[in-house]
Design a protein that fits this description.
Low-confidence stretches: 24-31
CATH superfamily: Glutaredoxin
Radius of gyration: 19 Å
CATH topology: Glutaredoxin
Helix content: 25-40%
CATH architecture: 3-Layer(aba) Sandwich
Structural class: alpha/beta
Number of domains: 1
Shape: elongated
Order of helices and strands: HEHEHEEEEEEH
Oligomer: single chain
CATH class: Alpha Beta
Length: 195
């Protein structure tokens, strides 16, 4: 009888492990590490913050932001940074942001620094995401989720946001790091002026 119970427990652990591995590999298969697969997506160059989805997202209306994120964006400008450990462009962008005094620490425990310390950083490892799978909200319809993805948002009377996928390198419509700093400064200015 003991052998039977041990066998059942072993099978339960094995099945749990298979399910966990399946779920994690499913996330990786549905996401793309840009640059890891030699892809450089086009982004919409920043001209102003959006309220509704821009045309190239092929979605309509206002993004459905979870209430906890909406509440945080009412208090502070928020920067979401979507990444995962094996994504080289994610690491390169993070390192660039550290070198330019935007963030400090690592992707998993970083924080905003210097002039940006009033911004809330939410750094999301898409493999271990416990915040509700936000990346699809900021992904154009019909496209897989891509990393790195950076989103800046704030709420005054409405929620304003800007998002881009791929490293902040100034290529294909994406901002470079100095432009990202200007976007963050503009978000703080607009939030404070109209907040």
């Amino acid at each position: 009888m003991k052998k039977f119970i041990v066998l059942l427990i072993s099978i339960a652990f094995l099945l749990t492990g298979f399910h966990f591995a399946y779920e994690k590999s499913k996330i990786l298969n549905e996401s793309r590490c840009l640059g890891c697969i030699a892809m450089l997506p086009k982004a919409i160059s920043f001209h102003k913050f959006w309220i509704e989805y821009p045309k190239n997202f092929h979605k309509s209306g206002i993004p459905q932001i979870p209430s906890w994120l909406l509440n945080e964006s009412k208090k502070n400008v928020v920067m979401l940074f979507f990444w995962y450990k094996g994504c080289d462009p994610c690491k390169a962008q993070w390192d660039d942001m550290v070198a330019n005094n935007i963030v400090s620490g690592s992707e998993s425990n970083g924080k905003m620094t210097g002039n940006f310390s009033n911004i809330t950083l939410i750094s999301i490892d898409i493999i271990n995401d416990k915040l509700g799978n936000l990346l699809p909200i900021y992904t154009p319809k019909g496209k897989p989720s891509e990393t790195p993805t950076t989103v800046i948002l704030f709420t005054k009377n409405e929620t304003y946001w800007y998002a881009f996928s791929g490293k902040a390198d100034g290529i294909a419509g994406r901002p470079n790091i100095s432009q990202l700093k200007k976007i963050l400064n503009l978000a703080m200015e607009e939030k404070n002026v109209h907040g």
